């Protein structure tokens, strides 16, 4: 398939720059059948039933962006992609000239960092301190908002670009479908008999990259790490056995689940995934997907087209533009019924 088949025109005014005033006050486009249904997020309560399992990604966004200088004095920007251990990270480094292995950087005016070398597009950096790097990032880093959000991260973003159930620090982008939930909605779902389960997938910056290859099969997918507990595996097995549905909240939850079922059955454990889901993929675990609206020509748009059917999903996106839904991380949501396989 060609990448340009997944393109669409999006007016800039529809790109949400700030979250809604309250969590859960967004609109919800329900994609089922031939015509999408305009709803509000609170309608999710009537669209689920007792015995369903809602799977959330409990990753926590870290303050991954740091500014500083090289030994030469040149300015740099560092975006941590992954924390490798207590003192080392993989990171993007933006500079007029790439730093060399063995050189040192000064970040946030106080942190000395050694460049250990390159790993593909990333640099391996070591923080010269006894303090764990996650603690240093929390103190000196900045929240890494997506590239289409034009303002610098502020206090509102530090609260709202984080899910209420965030637990495991390590993501550089939020699992944005989860941003709609507040504690009251989660409790209301439990009260209805919906089971809440969790996976962890640390979202990388590659999630924002458009596919630049002319043919989608030529695209090199970025890698992310995930973890799925036996508790979640058991909850999904019990739901399916009883006729319940598995609802993945966000493409990140879906990617973790489908990656862990690559051998045929869902398995607990940790792993790395480069799964690239495109039309023709056969889903093994997920029955419904709650997600936000995605970038044109992106791997995530390709994923939702695989899940909901290409013709139906592109029509839903046209409907969303016409009805002026809010797009991307701080935007509105959609609930998608999986196309018959």
What does this structure look like?
By secondary structure, this protein is an alpha/beta fold. It has 2 domains: 3-61 and 157-337, 3-Layer(aba) Sandwich (QueA-like); 65-140, QueA-like (Thrombin, subunit H, Beta Barrel). Helices cover 21% and strands 28% of the residues. Strands 2-1-17-16-14-3-12-13-15 form a 9-stranded mixed beta sheet. Helix 7 crosses helix 8 (310-322).
Low-confidence stretches: none
Distance between the termini: 19 Å
Radius of gyration, in Å, reads: 20 Å
In what range is the share of β-strand residues? 25-35%
Mean pLDDT: 96
Strand tally is: 17
- Secondary structure tally, helices: 8
Helix/strand/pairing category: alpha/beta
Shape: globular
CATH superfamily of the largest domain: QueA-like
Order of helices and strands: EEHEEEEEEEEHHEHEEHEHEEHHE
Estimate the helix proportion, in percent.
10-25%
CATH topology (level 3) name of the largest domain: QueA-like
**Strand numbers in spatial order across the main sheet:** 2-1-17-16-14-3-12-13-15
Q: What is the class of the largest domain in the CATH system? A: Alpha Beta
**Major sheet size, sense and barrel closure:** 9 strands, mixed
């Amino acid at each position: 398939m060609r990448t340009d088949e997944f393109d669409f025109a999006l007016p800039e005014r529809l790109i949400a720059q700030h979250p809604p005033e309250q969590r859960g006050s967004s609109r919800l486009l329900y994609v089922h059948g031939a015509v999408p249904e305009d709803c509000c997020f609170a309608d999710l309560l009537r669209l689920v039933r007792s015995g369903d399992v809602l799977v959330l990604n409990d990753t926590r966004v870290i303050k991954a962006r740091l500014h500083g200088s090289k030994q030469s004095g040149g300015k740099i920007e560092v975006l941590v992609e992954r924390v490798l251990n207590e003192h080392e990270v993989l990171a993007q480094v933006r500079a007029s000239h790439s730093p060399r292995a063995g050189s040192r950087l000064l970040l946030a005016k106080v942190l000395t960092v050694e460049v250990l070398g390159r790993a593909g597009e990333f640099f391996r950096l070591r923080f010269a301190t006894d303090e764990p790097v996650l603690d240093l990032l929390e103190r000196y880093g900045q929240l890494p908002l997506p590239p289409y959000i034009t303002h610098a991260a502020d206090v509102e973003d530090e609260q709202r670009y984080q899910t209420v159930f965030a637990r495991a620090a390590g993501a550089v982008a939020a699992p944005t479908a989860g941003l709609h939930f507040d504690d009251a909605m989660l409790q209301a779902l439990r009260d209805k008999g919906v089971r809440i389960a969790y996976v962890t997938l640390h979202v990388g910056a590659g999630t924002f990259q458009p596919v630049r290859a002319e043919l989608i099969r030529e695209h090199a997918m970025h890698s992310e790490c995930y973890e799925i507990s036996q508790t979640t595996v058991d909850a999904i097995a019990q739901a399916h056995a009883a006729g319940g549905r598995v609802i993945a909240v966000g493409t990140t939850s879906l990617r973790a689940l489908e990656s862990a079922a690559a051998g045929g059955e869902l398995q607990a454990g940790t792993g790395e995934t480069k799964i690239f889901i495109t039309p023709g993929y056969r889903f093994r675990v997920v029955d419904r997907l709650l997600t936000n609206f995605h970038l044109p020509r992106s791997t995530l748009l390709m994923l939702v087209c695989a899940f909901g059917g290409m013709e139906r999903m592109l029509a839903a996106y046209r409907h969303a533009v016409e009805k002026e839904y809010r797009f991307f991380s701080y935007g509105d949501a959609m609930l998608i019924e999986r196309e018959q396989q």
